[in-house]
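quick one before i forget lol
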Amino acid sequence: MAVASKSGRNVTIEVAYAASIREQVVVSFNIPLGSTVEHAIRVSGILDRFPHIDLSADVVGIFGQRASLKDTVSNGDRVEIYRSLVIDPKQARKCRAGQARKPKDKRR
């Protein structure tokens, strides 16, 4: 999927989204030099595939570093859309640790 640039200069980027552990999508394409993170996400088609993504609420980043929708993308960037956490990671760890400590039935 290539988008024509008025200047003729394009950059190659990826847009990534993990809907779940089992479903991850990475779309690679060319986009005009100077394009924003928001424009890249919209052009990628990921919003059509996952209509529940809300760019006004969801956090985005470039290579794991939080970014603004207004930031410009550079050649080779990986734009990532982060989904909300279902459970706080600290709480999840406590739950797993609590399950591991349960005494086992010692009947023989």
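fyi The chain has a mean pLDDT of 86.
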